[in-house]
Design goal:
Rossmann fold, 2 domains, alpha/beta, 17 helices, single chain, Beta Polymerase, domain 2, six-stranded parallel sheet
């Protein structure tokens, strides 16, 4: 099946968190990066997806031979990163593999926590950003709508989301394993955005009542805290809070660590080396890696949650199989739609030529032998001639569509061009060839990683 979509990216399965945060695209740069993609000569449509567990560039190519290099250049070297580093940890998917990957991502089948709902919203946000930037065209729009529809069907027709947990709740589960009871634990949440809200719900479900929330936007922290009967604190009080709590769960959108080694070394002394457990589920990370080396500090990041997620995956295996079947059916529908694109320009060209010939013949007749006809009579003659032409064309047009749907339309389309004396250029989105680079990309289910704490 020849489908023209290319994905270059990396996720938690192929790249550790320190590499993912190096390649992450900040929210305030997404529009700029989307526009850079379509400014490349080999790309006509594009979308950037950057979450805690993946950074992916989706592109519809105009030049299949050059698009992979353009995407890798923009993802890596244009930001001062060594292209060899990207090559060592990225995947490239083309055609049907790329489409299947997008559908699996949207359906949360490629997520760290299979069945979690957050990734679909993240892809929709990415699509909205790209659309606002003017980088989504008709082909990518159609592909995205199919992926969103498949994801909705998976959630409504399978139980894959039942008892599912978010990354936030996996973090809470980790804390539960460390402490016999969370009822008496004092928890500090840093960040009150989307991920913070998910984490807050997980903490509340676990019966945690002594929670402090600090955010650089105090009003947001206050709103989230009030919703659960907790306490909002100003971000300037973080050091004092760190000296007294048992668990810290941090998920801010900061571009660099907010808890550094020097700062935490002072906190450790104030705590008299009482154990402090920190779960950092932000990408880029909120906590400097060296903090985990301090005495009495136990630091976990998002990659450390993967082991917990494997049990989650096993529990949903049967539901995941049903979801995969839904995705496969939607992919087949999308493939049928794209295959018909190859004959659409030919059909349009044939009909256009038929209309031109018909119009010229009618005008000539109305000027000469049929000039005495009134308006109604002319209309009747015109309608009869057009109906006859349409009836004559119908079998050929139907055969073109049917053969195209079966994947055999190209040869018939070329024959039709010769028979009807027309020339039609196929859509650019049909010109992509399979990628010669297959390292790590031949099985989308096993290459690109998961999702997504965001």
């Amino acid at each position: 099946m020849n489908m023209s979509l290319v994905v270059v990216g990396l996720n938690h399965r192929v790249a550790p968190v320190d590499l993912r945060e190096s390649f992450a695209v900040p929210a305030d740069r997404l529009a700029e990066m989307n526009r850079k993609l379509v400014d490349a000569p080999s790309i006509s449509e594009a979308m950037v997806l950057s979450t805690c567990n993946r950074v992916e560039f989706y592109a519809v190519p105009t030049d299949p031979d050059a698009v992979e290099g353009e995407l890798e250049r923009l993802l890596g070297s244009d930001r001062g990163l060594d292209p060899r580093l990207l090559a060592s940890c990225s995947y490239v998917l083309r055609g049907e593999d790329a489409l299947l990957h997008l559908m699996r991502v949207c359906a949360s089948l490629d997520s760290l926590v299979v069945g979690e709902a957050q990734i679909l919203g993240q892809v929709k946000d990415a699509a909205r950003n790209a659309r606002d930037a003017g980088t989504i065209g008709p082909f990518l729009d159609r592909v995205l709508q199919s992926a969103f529809s498949a994801a909705k069907e998976v959630r409504t027709k399978t139980a894959i989301a039942e008892a599912t947990v978010s990354i936030g709740s996996v973090a809470v589960d980790l804390a539960r394993r460390i402490f016999p009871s969370l009822d008496t634990c004092r928890v500090l949440m840093l960040g009150a955005g989307k991920m913070g809200q998910v984490t807050a719900r997980a903490l509340a479900s676990a019966g945690v009542s002594r929670v402090y929330i600090a955010s650089r936007t105090y009003a947001r922290a206050r709103e989230l805290a009030d919703g659960h009967g907790w306490i909002a604190r100003d971000f300037a009080e973080v050091d004092d809070l760190l000296a007294s709590v048992d668990v810290v769960i941090t998920s801010t959108g900061a571009s660099r660590p907010i808890l550094g080694v020097k700062q935490m070394r002072a906190v450790v002394k104030r705590r008299r080396y009482k154990p402090l457990f920190i779960v950092d589920i932000a990408v880029p990370r909120d906590v400097a890696a060296g903090v985990g080396e301090l005495d009495s500090v136990y630091l976990y990041n998002i990659d450390d949650l993967e082991q917990l997620s494997q049990a989650n995956l096993a529990q949903r295996k049967s539901e995941a199989e049903a979801a995969e079947a839904i995705v496969a059916a939607r992919l087949a529908e999308l493939g049928q739609w794209q295959r018909t694109l190859v004959v659409k320009p030919v059909i349009a060209a044939i009909r256009g030529r038929a209309e031109t010939i018909t119009r010229e013949a009618l005008d000539k007749s109305f000027r000469r032998g049929l000039s005495e006809l009134d308006e109604a009579q002319r209309g009747a003659v015109e309608a009869a001639v057009k109906a006859a032409v349409n009836k004559l064309l119908h079998p050929a047009m139907s055969a073109l569509r049917e053969q195209a749907a079966e994947g055999e339309g190209l040869e018939l389309a070329r024959a039709a061009e010769r028979l009807y004396g027309v020339t039609a250029r196929p859509p650019a989105v049909l010109t992509a060839a399979p990628s010669p680079k297959a390292d790590g990309a031949s099985a989308p289910a096993a290459t690109p990683p998961t999702e997504d704490t965001e």
